């Protein structure tokens, strides 16, 4: 289900965590965009996968770029190693 809020079409609500803190985002957003919207401190500069400033660790242990990683229900990332 898509929602329109203030002229912006949003995807379904998605809950995930950053450093154990719950964050609500919308399907189609990246982890970095959701973090910024929630005032969570994830660094980032280019927002296109080039600089590597936004690296986070997924629950699988893989290091991923938050600006390229879509949010997903139950996703868990940490900002420290
Ligand atoms: S913000 Fe530059 S790689 Fe993500």
From TrEMBL:
It comes from Sphingomonas baiyangensis. Residues 12-81 form the 2Fe-2S ferredoxin-type domain. PROSITE patterns: 2FE2S_FER_2 (PS51085). InterPro entries: 2Fe-2S-bd_N (IPR042204), 2Fe-2S_ferredoxin-like_sf (IPR036010), 2Fe-2S_ferredoxin-type (IPR001041). It comes from the Bacteria. This is (2Fe-2S)-binding protein. It holds the Pfam family Fer2_4. Keywords: Oxidoreductase. One of its GO terms (molecular function) is oxidoreductase activity.
């Amino acid at each position: 289900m898509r929602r329109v809020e203030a002229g912006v079409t949003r995807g379904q609500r998605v809950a995930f965590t950053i450093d154990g803190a719950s964050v609500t985002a919308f399907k189609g957003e990246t982890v970095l965009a959701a973090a910024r919207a929630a005032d969570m401190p994830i660094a980032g500069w280019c927002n296109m996968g080039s600089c590597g400033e936004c690296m986070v660790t997924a629950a699988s242990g893989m290091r991923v770029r938050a600006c390229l990683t879509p949010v997903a229900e139950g996703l868990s990332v940490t900002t420290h190693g």
